[in-house]
Write a structure and sequence with these properties.
The chain is α+β, with helices and mostly antiparallel strands and 614 residues long. It contains twelve helices and 27 strands. It has helices spanning 143-158, 180-193, 208-215, 218-221, 233-247, 339-345, 350-358, 396-404, 413-425, 446-451, 476-479, 542-552; strands spanning 17-21, 24-33, 37-43, 47-52, 76-79, 83-95, 110-123, 131-140, 166-171, 197-202, 226-231, 248-250, 268-273, 277-281, 305-307, 328-333, 363-374, 384-388, 391-395, 429-436, 495-508, 532-538, 565-570, 572-577, 583-586, 589-592, 595-607. The strands form four sheets. Strands 13, 14, 17, 18, 19, 20, 21, 22, 23, 24, 25, 26 and 27 form a 13-stranded mixed β-sheet that branches.
Length: 614
């Protein structure tokens, strides 16, 4: 085969120099970088870098076109942790840099040589959370030179730990605007290039992903390094609930009636209503917790949980524990809201999510266990459990989901339409909430304001809180191992009650950022701090509630800075409706519950993500 064309000034048979610095060998070689020109490539223990040769032309050439100097002193580099694939692509064209002169002519030509390609990640300067694939193709006339560099980079990339090799992928074809399959087809080459095996299941019906995950054996589950949802928050929630329903065995949170008949030692229960707040001394002096019989919790913020090991289970395969240090969930956004993806990656971009997955990124996520004790005031049934990764809401939030079910044919626009209809009705509901007090909470709730004797304030606003610090990459709050908050059964813990008419009741696990609420429901909620954010919106005039909602939709808004809004950080709460029945919104799904309680598990699951870039 005739191989013509060559760049001047390079000995095509020269092998790279290898320099030894201590224990880490550094390999350097002159190669050609496609569309750039001749570079000096350096490969060390952390990654590869390259410097452009000072000039692509002879210095004595005084032509204004040829006299252009390249930025040789500015080094370009990529770390092995940002490289997800290396490919040897054999003989082919490598193009020299194309430059224009004053006459509009172009310099540069292509030459055939041996090549290898490095696939990595590029982060946007303007939008740090937005990632894009980048490709660097290096070439040399000598195959041994190319092969040596390729082998060295490949070996170093293979040493990067934590990357998945096999994934179970669920694709929701009708998610959002029906883009599920197209979204997967767009990112699938990234997984193929990274040599990740994928078993893809396109769901044909609602609940299919739940059924698969709830019935999967430990042996089959341990084949995979994670499970991926190509769809919206609903598909992720379905997969999550399927896995946790069969693999997690945990103590229930308190029922709404448990703590009414027990109390803290020398403690009290605070009862605050819309119009009055009183402190009631507890007439029960036991130091036991208000839990179900046999409840077993540890002394950390999060309730103790155990897996199926030791429980009645027909699965005799290898054990699967939770939390699991290796197994991770992933979400490639194709839904209507995609709050999980936005909160964990900082952007709503399928390619960015795919790159997080192939690079093996990991972030822990709190999960709320929501238990329904009664569907209606007269029903008698066994407890029903749901798990929520984002939000559980009642009143306005539950009504919107129920109303939107009538207009599924409208697609994602049904939520805007349903929200408008529910807002115009302006319904409030009588209910009672009890929540575990967090003593470190800097709350501006109505009850605490009363106790400080500062009830006199404008109805429409409260003093501004300190600057909010949102969750981000390497978040100190989420990685902290301190547990200042006692568990339900710890001595000194205290339950507070709020009773009255509410327009909405919400419990946010994470900030719940989305395109309609750029800062989310609670801007400074964290991914893995072990807390729920309880938001109680009491009955108020229509105009003030509209003001509250507009603050939610505003970047930098203060939706919690109203006298009719209570915000409490807690680890558990209970709910009892005063009506016949009530509807909750649990991660976007309808959940009828007259009596309900919830608790949070800190860092129960892991996601292929890093947290949003600041």
């Amino acid at each position: 085969m005739e191989r013509n064309g060559d760049f001047s000034g390079v000995d095509n048979k020269s092998l790279p120099d290898v320099q030894i610095n201590g224990e880490n060998p550094v390999l350097t070689s002159n190669l050609f970088l496609d569309h750039v020109g001749e570079v000096v490539l350096t490969i060390n223990s952390d990654g590869l870098s390259w410097n452009l040769v000072e000039s692509i032309c002879k210095e004595q050439d005084e032509s204004p076109c040829l006299g252009i100097k390249l930025a040789s002193k500015s080094e370009t580099a990529i770390k092995f942790s940002d490289v997800y694939a290396v490919e040897f692509i054999d003989w082919g064209l490598v193009h020299e840099s194309i430059l224009g002169n004053a006459r509009g002519c172009l310099l540069g030509h292509a030459s055939e040589m041996y090549r290898f390609t490095v696939h990595g990640v590029h982060r946007s300067k303007n939008q740090p959370s937005l990632w894009a694939p980048c490709v660097y193709t290096f070439g040399h006339k000598d195959m041994d030179t190319c092969q040596l560099c390729f082998n060295r980079i490949t070996a170093s990339v293979n040493m990067v730990t934590g990357r998945p090799k096999s994934l179970l992928v669920f694709v929701h074809p009708k998610s959002g605007k029906g883009n599920g399959c197209r979204t997967w087809e767009a990112v699938a080459p990234i997984f193929s290039r990274a040599k990740i095996k994928t078993k893809v299941m396109v769901t044909q019906r609602a609940g299919q992903a739940f059924d698969v995950m709830s019935s999967i054996t430990n042996g089959d589950l341990n084949v995979y390094d994670g499970v991926i949802a190509v769809g919206g928050d609903g598909l992720f929630n379905e997969i999550l609930n399927g896995l946790l329903s069969s693999k997690l065995k945990a103590s229930y949170p308190p029922t709404p009636t448990d703590f009414l008949h027990s109390g803290e030692k020398d403690g009290c229960i605070m009862l605050h209503e819309s119009n009055k707040t009183v402190a009631e001394a507890s007439d029960h002096n036991e130091d036991t917790s208000p839990l179900l019989p046999g409840a077993n919790l540890d002394d950390s913020r999060s309730p103790k949980f155990r897996t199926e090991e030791g429980c009645c289970n027909t699965d005799q395969g290898p054990s699967f524990s939770l939390p699991n240090e290796w197994f991770r969930f992933g979400v490639i956004p194709a839904g209507s809201t995609d709050a999980v993806v936005i909160c964990t990656t900082g952007t709503r971009d399928p390619v960015t999510s795919a790159l997080h997955i192939v690079l093996g990124k990991r972030v822990c996520l709190d999960i709320a266990q929501v238990v329904r004790w009664k569907t209606t005031s007269t029903s008698k049934e066994e407890p029903c459990i749901r798990y929520a990764a984002t939000f559980s809401g009642y009143g306005f939030y539950g009504d919107v989901i129920r109303e939107s079910e009538k207009y599924r044919w409208m697609g994602p626009k049904r939520y805007d339409y349903a929200g408008t209809m529910v807002f115009l009705r302006h319904r409030s509901y009588e209910a009672e909430i009890a929540y575990l007090e967090v003593k470190s909470e800097e709350s501006s709730s109505a009850s605490e304001e009363v106790l400080r004797g500062s009830r006199k304030r404008a109805l429409w606003g409260l003093p501004k809180k300190p600057e909010r610090k949102p969750c981000c990459v390497n978040c100190n709050v989420c990685t902290s191992t301190s547990h200042p908050m006692p568990a339900h059964n710890a001595e000194g813990s205290r339950w507070l009650k709020s009773k009255g008419r509410f327009l909405s009741i919400g419990a946010a696990v994470i900030s719940c950022r989305n395109e309609r609420a750029p800062d989310g429901l609670v801007a400074d909620a964290h991914l893995s701090d072990g807390f729920l954010h309880l938001i109680l919106v009491k009955d108020c005039p229509h105009a003030l509630y509209l003001w509250h909602l507009t603050q939610l939709a505003k970047k930098g808004g203060n939706p919690l800075n109203f006298a009719f809004v209570e915000h409490h950080k807690t680890t558990a709460f209970t709910f009892t409706s005063s009506g016949e029945e009530s509807v909750w919104n649990v991660d976007g799904e309808l959940f009828q519950a007259h009596k309900l309680s919830a608790q949070v598990f800190r860092g129960l699951v892991s996601l292929f993500a890093t947290g949003p870039e600041v």
